[in-house]
Amino acid sequence: MLAKTPPMGWNSWNTFGSDINEDVILENAEAFVRLGLPEAGYEYIVIDDCWSMKERDAKTGRIVPDPKKFPHGMKYVSDRIHEKGLKFGMYSCAGVRTCADYPGSFDHEFLDAKTFAEYGCDYLKYDFCYMPETANGELMYRRMGLALKSSGREILFSACNWGSDEVHKWIRSTGAHMYRSTGDIHDNFESMKKIALSQEKLLGYSAPGCFNDTDMLTVGMFGKGLVGTTGCTEADYRTQFGLWCMFSAPLILGCDVRKLSGEMLALVKNKDLIRIDQDEEARPPIESHTGWGGDKRVYFKHLSGGEYALGFFNLSDSDQRVQTNLTNFGLSASSGLALSLRDVADGAHFGKFTDYISIHIPAHDCRIFICNLENA
Ligand code: GAL
User: Fold this and answer.
1) Residue 127 CA to ligand 1 centre (angstroms)
2) Per DSSP, which regions of 238-344 are E strands?
3) Which ligand 1 atom sits closest to the C-alpha of 183?
4) pLDDT in tens, 233-266
5) Of the options 3.20.20.70, 3.90.1150.10, 1.10.3980.10, 3.40.50.720, the CATH number for the domain spanning 8-277
6) In the CATH hierarchy, which fold is given to the domain comprising 286-375?
7) CA nearest 303: which of 327, 276, 325, 321?
8) What pLDDT, on a 0 to 100 scale, did the predictor assign at position 292?
9) How remote is the CA of residue 185 from the centroid of ligand 1, in Å?
10) Do 282 and 207 contact (CB within 8 A), yes or no?
11) How far apart are CA 204 and CA 242, in angstroms?
């Protein structure tokens, strides 16, 4: 089964946009391996938009890789990526053109799926621009879903219609393994926060086999690259990564992996956070917004094996106390039980709580714990 747990990898778009080529992709794949990301669970290297010629081949009707960017073709890139023990992902679009105006797969779905399979592709991101006015988006995703299944290769189907057309209600039925449930992310705190908060009511739709995708991470970009706007602080990125993990979202890095280091590298490799994200039950968190002041969230998530994850998020622009009553999550005072907390940042025991937890958290930051129920 593909996408038993949320897919993990890297995608070229956030940093490189149209500025991609064989070297950029293979150097990022090399850095990916050197930094130990595969051991942490990351596996897909995905080339986004702008990889092809502007027009299809007139004779064969096939999409053709741009020889200036990919002089050895896509099978070569795919082989080099596979040699590193990684998986190879590509991009196309349900409309007649991609979002950056390259050929889309509309009415060429089966031929394109076959072409991608021949490249040795393991993952297809499928966008939503330039749809004919009367075309039905759901049907277009059904077509590519079947085209990939019949391509002769197991290819993970990553749908990207930005959360439109109530996609959460029908996307699983198309065979997709993940789907963008939001618009595009930009590398600033407000963009990330808007995306995260827009997901609260949709998290129940995300489950093994097909996960809600809150877009590629901007962690580690620090304002550099295509979606780079103002950039974020380390606290902002801790919060972004923590939210994605609490939401069981796909973890697709979008930074220049060659420059990923220090705290941010440790963050994206944090074993406890990845365990929360990759928990096989993929349960949505229970959400609580108790306490004074706005823009604070506490999420409580059941994990497999009798554990829980508890995340305190201060999404406001000032330092705050973030509080919650454990009764929100089902713990009653009469149970005789307490929740024991261990901080994912350093593994330290944080305390045992029976009813109420209040933690001081700096602006934009978070605290996340793995918890067990014990006798009070
Ligand atoms: C957008 C998509 C982005 C990126 C871009 C490429 O529609 O949401 O993630 O793929 O197109 O042009």
Assistant:
1) 7
2) 251-253, 286-288, 296-302, 308-314, 320-325, 337-343
3) 8
4) 999 999 999 999 999 999 999 999 999 999 999 9
5) 3.20.20.70
6) Immunoglobulin-like (2.60.40)
7) 276
8) 67
9) 10
10) yes
11) 18
Per the annotation, the verdict on 184 as an active-site residue is yes
CA of 303 to the centre of ligand 1 (A): 32
- Residue 75: DSSP 8-state: H
Which pTM value belongs to this model?
0.98
Whether 127 is a known active-site residue: answer yes
* pLDDT for position 316: 94
Q: How far is the CA of 105 from the centre of ligand 1 (A)?
A: 15
Residue nearest to atom 8 of ligand 1 (CA): 184
Asked whether 16 and 257 are in contact (CB, 8 A), the reply is no
Q: Could you tell me the pLDDT band of residue 294, with boundaries at 50, 70 and 90?
A: confident
How large a percentage of the chain has pLDDT more than 70? 99
Q: Is the pLDDT of residue 291 over 80?
A: no
Ligand 1 pocket, CB under 6 A: 13, 48-49, 98-100, 127, 129, 160, 162, 184
**Looking at the chain, which residues constitute the CATH 2.60.40.1180 domain(s)?**
286-375
- Once rounded to an integer, what is the mean pLDDT over residues 161-189? 97
> Which two three-digit tokens encode residue 136?
């039905």
Residue 125 CA, closest ligand 1 atom number: 10
